[in-house]
Amino acid sequence: MINILIGLFPALMWGMLPIILTKLGGKPIQQMIGTTLGSLIVALICLLFSYHHVSYSLSNVLLCFISGIFWSVGQLNQYRALEIIGVSQTMPLATGLLLISNSLFGVVVFGDWASGYQKILGFGAIALIIFSLFLTSYQTQRRSSKEISQLKRSILILLLSTLGYIGYATLPNFSDSNGWSAFLPQVVGMVLGTWLQAIFVYKQQPILGHESWRHLMSGFIFAIGALGYLISLKVNGVAVGYTLSQMGVIISTMGGIVFLKEHKTRSELKLTIIGLLLTSIAAIMVGLTKS
Known about the structure:
mainly alpha
């Protein structure tokens, strides 16, 4: 039971993050600056207590550092989608796209799902996710042209976000770093990637404004969730740890509806709940392919 609670802890942290981001306000780039700085503080504190567990080589540090830059692209674009269509629409889409893309990338690049059993589970999970995306994004009332435009734009943004997350998730696989050794180089890459986007893409001035400092809390939440995930992988293994971490989509989606008052009709709410359950089942199926 304790191990399951440890596994659900990252889901709680990462599920709360979009809700807290929205409550604190600010532009996506300001939210990102605060998130990465807060994460850096946590990473440096952790290094003080775990230095005897970490070892670095130049190639490993570079791979993890670059993966952090990819994460900054993925996370920033997720924040952009949150601003446009809200938490309860963004998070099911983001989670579904990420589960599909990471799974397919693993099949193509790393030869995952080698057995027939794994293929049945994996592609069955993808079919469930696609259906769940339809359910969670369905609206009983006809969308206005503005809403359709916003949804299309957000899907494109989330596809870009997914590419960033793929780089973040896969590059460390080419190194022999453990999670603790990868954490600090990744966070440094996150900070640099965010600052480069702030300066050259979004022309953010000042870089460290009041809104950015306010989002240090967001960084603490993200980084503590990431540390919880590393611990979960150790006590639960990849299959269970990964699956439990994906349950955060339930917290964020329902939190958006309850705490942020994102409107859904009774029928839409029922379909959203069914979609979330299907996404959770699909995550379990993907997790089983890793066992």
